[in-house]
Amino acid sequence: MISTKFAATWACLVFLLTAGCKIEYSFTGTTIDYNVTQTFSVANFFNDSGGGPANMGQLFTEELKDYFQRNTQLELIQNGGDLQLSGAITKYTITPQATVSNPNSNQPDRAGQMRITIGVEVDFVNLNNEEENSKRPYSFFQDYDPRTTSLLQVETELVEVIFENIIQDVFTSTVANW
């Protein structure tokens, strides 16, 4: 049986240890101090890759805004936020990954797998903590089988999956500090 004196001492110790913490915890793992950082802004990302769907820059910009709004308590403002994200899509490539040959045919080897790779450079500015500012590239890829589907059939879905992964990486490296 625990004495009430011991329990009161333990409760005071736990309170003192946790009361001095300035970083708030959330279920998304962010380390944002909402007393200091209250807003974020996202500049339009442009497609500087020379490839991909025509709306790719706008799609990335909107998905990035949505992700931050869903996973933080920050208010989205047009520009000048406490946290600022900007950049460009710098890479969009489609490359063969595996070849398939047909030994009973005079046909040349064909691609058995194709890979879409997208690279995005993100400039992150934290007006309240300049040590967290960064400019870095993010990249992700998805494969598809050109023997069973065409690029036109899967491109939109694959770009969305790639963007989801890049945006999660951006989020964790900026506001989750992983």
TrEMBL record:
Biological process GO terms, please?
Answer: Gram-negative-bacterium-type cell outer membrane assembly
Out of the domains of life, which is the source?
Bacteria
Enumerate the UniProt keywords alphabetically.
Signal
Name used for this protein in its record: Lipopolysaccharide-assembly
Record's signal peptide: 1-19
Which InterPro entries does the protein's record reference? LPS_assembly_LptE (IPR007485)
> Could you name the Gene Ontology cellular component terms for this entry?
outer membrane
